[in-house]
Amino acid sequence: MDTGFIDHGRIYDYLKNTTPPDAKELDEILAHAKELKGISFAEAERLLMVEDDAHLDKIAETARFIKEEIYGKRLVLFAPLYVSNLCNNDCLYCAFKKSNKSIPRRTLTFDELRREVQTLVQQGHKRILLVSGEGLGMNALDYTVKAIETIYSVKMGKGEIRRINVNIAALPVEGFKRLKAARIGTYQLFQETYHAETYKTMHPSGPKSNYLYHLTAMDRAMEAGIDDVGVGILFGLEDYRFEIMALLQHIRHLEERFGTGVHTISIPRLEPATGSDVSVNPPHAVSDRDFRKIISILRITVPYTGMILSTREDAKMRHEALSLGISQISAGSRTNPGGYSESDSAEQFSLGDHRSLEEVIRDIATMGYIPSFCTGCYRLGRTGQDFMDLAKPGLIKHYCLPNAITSFKEYLVNYATPETRKVGDALIQKMLNDVPEAALRAKTAASLKKIEEGAVDVYV
Ligand code: SAM
Ligand code: SF4
Hints:
Blueprint: H1 8-17, H2 23-33, H3 41-48, H4 53-71, E1 74-84, H5 110-123, E2 127-132, H6 140-153, E3 155-156, E4 159-160, E5 163-167, H7 173-181, E6 187-188, H8 196-202, H9 211-215, H10 217-223, E7 229-232, H11 240-258, E8 264-266, H12 277-280, H13 288-301, E9 306-309, H14 315-324, E10 328-330, H15 357-366, E11 370-372, H16 376-379, H17 384-390, H18 393-415, H19 418-432, H20 438-452
Parallel strand pairs: 1-2, 1-10, 1-11, 2-5, 5-6, 6-7, 7-8, 8-9, 9-10
Antiparallel strand pairs: 3-4
Helix pairs in contact: 1-11, 2-4, 3-11, 3-13, 4-13, 5-6, 13-14, 15-19, 18-19, 18-20
This protein binds S-adenosylmethionine (SAM) and iron/sulfur cluster.
């Protein structure tokens, strides 16, 4: 089978014949990582071979250092918005697969969609990930573009959605051009597994069964001018070491072709889904220990690439993952169309975290993390390579921290309960001290005052 730019043979050989690095080599790689410029993919592969507990602890410690230096305590929040669970594919792990007759199917009407968005906006959300099955037929793209317009059009008092990322089936270049024109943020598509044989087994029928077409989706998206693309692996389908090595090959391919790698990496682990045996008994289940290793190695290797943890992890793992490298999480999520404004079942998979946005925010703030609803970069055109140029430690602190603080303040003033507001305001006071330069600190403090007086959408 043609596996494109994923060199399976090289990965097999490496995994079979390579021994772990000794303490000296490990220390050298980690010292390199601490320079905050990322490490080479060859070095990342060496880290993947580490199994010794003490050595894994050292890797985790380095990841924590990098996360703290580059991102500080900033954490981006978003809500997935499922618009349709109709699907023509039969992905063995997913409840939306065509052959699963046990869930009710629906595609939201635009009125229903509006109600969903109103509910999210009323909760204080500003960022949405639009998610859909692949069953919308010939008019799928028309529907999606109209859905995006509908979402952006909802205004509730001072609230609105300011960034829509999209996770829908692979498209031809022309289709991606329409998504770009509709002003999407990031286009996300998960390869699920880079292992071609496993891919074939997991996707027995439907358009998604074409490995190469799926693999090259980001090439077409970037050809169409979409700067920010988000990749992902569904952990549990294959050996995680194979997946990470292949993911690095994917990133390198995009860097060589387009000059930028990927904007985000999503790292879901398989969760039990109705009607799916594979999801209940993953062929290569990833333990918590290995999951920590995966997050740490990715954070060390591509320090400026966002890393997204979805709803699916429980609160305990989310806490740990945040300190190791996760920069974005979903909060208060529902994975069924209509799930925000209606009480219903038919979820895509069981969620590990059932807390509301407000509860997640209070918890995050109590841990000292500052929830960010900022969408400034995207709206100022700081995307793709521009974003990467900006994403140097000092600059992230320069822009992102003040914007996180002001966007969080906007949430507190307009949506939070008094109890959350108290926790949040205390955190903001503390965080202000971390803003570099007195002038910027003063500007941020002035913005906070404006927001208290009613201003919204204040960013640098
Ligand atoms: N239909 C599009 C696709 O498959 O790319 C986008 C929507 S699909 C619902 C989004 C993602 O859900 C998939 O890429 C897959 O990684 C994830 N997913 C499906 N079943 C899952 C499960 N049982 N546990 C965790 N994630 C799952
Ligand atoms: Fe359909 Fe996507 Fe689920 Fe596959 S993962 S069955 S394509 S919704």
